Every structure is written in structure tokens, then in C-alpha cells.
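User: Sequence recovery, please. Input:
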């Protein structure tokens, strides 16, 4: 039989979380951000739960092609725009909207021969200091684009560096919004500002603007954990990583577990060996104490994560045996939920990384 591990993608939860984004910004249209292969869920698999969005936002033309092949005829936005002048041909062919964040992209548009004008999102660097035109250069970029016959419409766009910080200083959402509003005053066009954290934390219509860009919230992870959990935001897990116990061990006080003997039993105890390791995408750095569910009972990892196995404390799970269900994150069939954020936090990272790191060898089931 196959190794007993699988990832489950919960279609209804994806649809529920999209609905939550709409409730948080009822006046705005919503992009479903499906970059990084839908945050590790798979674009084709996530589509079933997210096709109620007003558009899809991503990075790769190949992923845009998947959506078109699935039958999506609505807007698709390339969040980082074109990486080469030849990408504009694909934008015309697939009817893709695309971000413009640098002068080179405007140059490519100016030289592009097309009978189909492009819809572009002009990005401002309002304090994130990754992509975008500085406020001082933004109007000049807008003027260049507005003068091109290759451009049909321009949406004004920025990205918040700290969407959970209300400070009016340069790094807070209020400060960045003020920079954006001052720079774009009197410029025509729709606006797009809010990521997941801004969408949930701020109900101000000026922040939501015309388009919101929910990403991580769609996948059942809180964008500002641990300040808020998915339960606080009424989100549902969309990915479950589940396996089984393949062995148990009875330890005496002083017995050690795993590589480096990283855990020493303080007293006699029983542990289980579960069929999941870092080669499956589980974080190797997850320490003793990282939460896990066995038969729906919350317990903990003990010892070091191996390539193919983890060891778990069975002290609280008297009925556990070979074949018992282990939920690494997500929804146990026994009804308990282990949010991915808790596992990520214990490992010193974020839920995004765990989702995206799911290994190819893990079978994925759509439920």
C-alpha cells in the first residue's frame, strides 16, 4: 500500500474564506491571489473554491494559462507585471492585465505592436521599498502610460508593508495611505491597496478602495497571527496535512529520541512515530513542543524532525496505536482543528511557507 500520508484541499473552506474577504470589504471587488501555485494548493484545485472572485491575481503566465484552460474568462492580473517585452504578446493573447512598476516595463509597452490596448496597474512604492515608482516619480510614470495608444486603462496601486500597524508614521498603514492619496490626488482610475491584513484589519472604504487583494486569508491562515487567529477572523483551514502512526515506542526515564538525542524522556512515556518528515514539507526546525493532533487529541512533537518521520508524545492519547490518524495541521477527521499558524509559529516561520513547501511526493486530494 502507499505510504500513509496525504494533503487534503478543502474546497468549501476556500469559498467560505473568499466570502469573508467580501464581507470585510463589501464595496470592493476582490482578486483571489493564486500566486505560488495557489500558495501550494494548486491553481487548478483552488479554482473550484475561488471562482466566485472578481478576478485572479498571480505571477506566472503559465498559471494564467491554466485558468484560461479551466474556462475562466474574467480578469487575470500579473502582480509583478512582465519580465520581458515578449510577455506582452501573451498578455494580448490571454487578455491579461499587468502591473507596471518600473520604466523598463513602460518602454516595452511603448514598443509593443498590438491592436488590443492593455489594462495596467501602476504600482507606487509608498514605503515597502520593493517594487514600484517612488511618489516623486509616480505622476511622471502615469503621464507616460496615459499617452500610449497601447494602454486602455490605468489602475492606481500600492502595497502596505505593515497592514496591521495603524501608526501614521512612514511604515504604518495610515502613513502609507496618506502618501498614496496625496500623490494620486486628481488622477483618474480605480484604486487597489489592500492585501489580506489590510482587508481584515481596516473597514475604511478608502483603504479597501475599488479592488482588494486577499491572499493568505483565502487559505485559512491569519495574516497577523498571533495577534489574531483564524478563529478570530472566522476563517477555515483549506489545507490539511495528515498521516498515520507507523510505530510506537515505550521509553524509560532518561531514554533519548531521534538524531542528536535532542529529546530525553523525563519519565517513562510512550511515543509514536508518524509518517511525515521534512521531505514532505514539514519544517525540519520544528522543535519539541510543536503541536500535533493524534486521533483528534492535541499533543506535541518530541525530538528532531527526520526526513521521513516525526516522533510524537502519546502520553495524552492512550488509545493510539499503529495506524492511528495524525494531523500535522488542518482538520482532524475527529473534529479537532490545528491551525497551520500555530505549527508555523512554533517553527519560527509563517503559514505561507508551510503551504508553499508541501512536497511533490505528498498525494493531494480535493475534498
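Assistant: Recovered sequence (367 residues):
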Amino acid at each position: 500500500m502507499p505510504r500513509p500520508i496525504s494533503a487534503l484541499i478543502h474546497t468549501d473552506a476556500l469559498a467560505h474564506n473568499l466570502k469573508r474577504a467580501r464581507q470585510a470589504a463589501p464595496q470592493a471587488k476582490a482578486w483571489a491571489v493564486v500566486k505560488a501555485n495557489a500558495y501550494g494548493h494548486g491553481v487548478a484545485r483552488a479554482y473550484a473554491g475561488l471562482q466566485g472572485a472578481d478576478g485572479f491575481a498571480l505571477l506566472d503566465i503559465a498559471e494564467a494559462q491554466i485558468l484560461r484552460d479551466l474556462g475562466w474568462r474574467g480578469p487575470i492580473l500579473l502582480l509583478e507585471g512582465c519580465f520581458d517585452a515578449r510577455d506582452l504578446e501573451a498578455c494580448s493573447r490571454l487578455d491579461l492585465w499587468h502591473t507596471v512598476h518600473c520604466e523598463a516595463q513602460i518602454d516595452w509597452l511603448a514598443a509593443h505592436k498590438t491592436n488590443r490596448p492593455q489594462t495596467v496597474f501602476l504600482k507606487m512604492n509608498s514605503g515597502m521599498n520593493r517594487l514600484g515608482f517612488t511618489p516623486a516619480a509616480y505622476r511622471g510614470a502615469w503621464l507616460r502610460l496615459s499617452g500610449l495608444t497601447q494602454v486602455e486603462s490605468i489602475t492606481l496601486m500600492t502595497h502596505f508593508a505593515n497592514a496591521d500597524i495603524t501608526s501614521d508614521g512612514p511604515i504604518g498603514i495610515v502613513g502609507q495611505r496618506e502618501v498614496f492619496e496625496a500623490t494620486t490626488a486628481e488622477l483618474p482610475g480605480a484604486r487597489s491597496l489592500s492585501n489580506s491584513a489590510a482587508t481584515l484589519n481596516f473597514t475604511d472604504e478608502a483603504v479597501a478602495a475599488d479592488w482588494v487583494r486577499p491572499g493568505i486569508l483565502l487559505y485559512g491562515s491569519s495574516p497577523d497571527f498571533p495577534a489574531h487567529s483564524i478563529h478570530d477572523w472566522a476563517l477555515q483551514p483549506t489545507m490539511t496535512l495528515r498521516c498515520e502512526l507507523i510505530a510506537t515506542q515505550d521509553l524509560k526515564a532518561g531514554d533519548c529520541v531521534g538524531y542528536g538525542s535532542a529529546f530525553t524522556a523525563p519519565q517513562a512515556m510512550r511515543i509514536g512515530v508518524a509518517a511525515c518528515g521534512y521531505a514532505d514539507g514539514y519544517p525540519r526546525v520544528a522543535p519539541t513542543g510543536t503541536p500535533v493532533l493524534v486521533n483528534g487529541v492535541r499533543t506535541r512533537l518530541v525530538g528532531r524532525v527526520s526526513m521521513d518521520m516525526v516522533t510524537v508524545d502519546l502520553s495524552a492519547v492512550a488509545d493510539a496505536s499503529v495506524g492511528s490518524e495524525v494531523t500535522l495541521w488542518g482538520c482532524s477527521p475527529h473534529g479537532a482543528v490545528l491551525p497551520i499558524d500555530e505549527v508555523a509559529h512554533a517553527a519560527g516561520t509563517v503559514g505561507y511557507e508551510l503551504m508553499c513547501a508541501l512536497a511533490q511526493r505528498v498525494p493531494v486530494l480535493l475534498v
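The chain has a mean pLDDT of 95.
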